[in-house]
């Protein structure tokens, strides 16, 4: 097995049966990629601004562009994850208090999917406890003017980050599953990592399906095993 790399994928869990599959990739070969949540490219010197306040985004955008950076906008954590499907920024600046997906959860998801992505928190609210997986590289208080220090932090993080860093992307590969008696499956979204329910019904053949995440509208492929094989 030295000529193969083996990766375990478990994107689908049933309330009664949780099934993993082992997918073996041959050296020099790539598996078929299912779904449409494909990351296109890493944007050079780009910064993703994640904040539900458009005035904050506009102000930061002007400051960043004046300093020579390219700014992308996202209105909350969910929108930020959607933006990552098209382009990976070199640095993310995120607020903490936002609708749909707050900053702590957003950072945790980004850290899980892209462990080496530099993240700066710019917020007027600070939680008493922050999970280790949601710890940013820098903290800045939104209520205090630290524009010079913020731009310096962005510049330093850009300088330390390779042009194409190793940023593992979750690959949407269908997972084998059996219909559950409760009438639904519980799937884990490969983009936002939240769970959601999908109605199940008995099948007489193994069938590949695609579900749409109710949280971020990502397409999540999965396989339903024939009831005849159960």
In short:
The protein has 230 residues and is of the alpha/beta class. It is built from 4 helices and 15 strands.
Defining traits:
single chain, about 230 residues, alpha/beta, Rossmann fold, five-stranded parallel sheet, three-stranded antiparallel sheet, 4 helices, about 20% helix, disordered N terminus
Describe the protein in words.
The protein folds into two domains: 4-36 and 169-229, no CATH class; 41-160, Response regulator (Rossmann fold). Helices cover 20% and strands 28% of the residues. The chain contains four helices and 15 strands. The strands form five sheets. It has a five-stranded parallel sheet. It has a three-stranded antiparallel sheet with strand order 2-12-13, with no helix packed on it. Helix 2 (77-84) packs parallel to helix 3. It is elongated and about 60 Å long. The two termini are 30 Å apart. Residues 1-36 have low confidence and may be disordered.
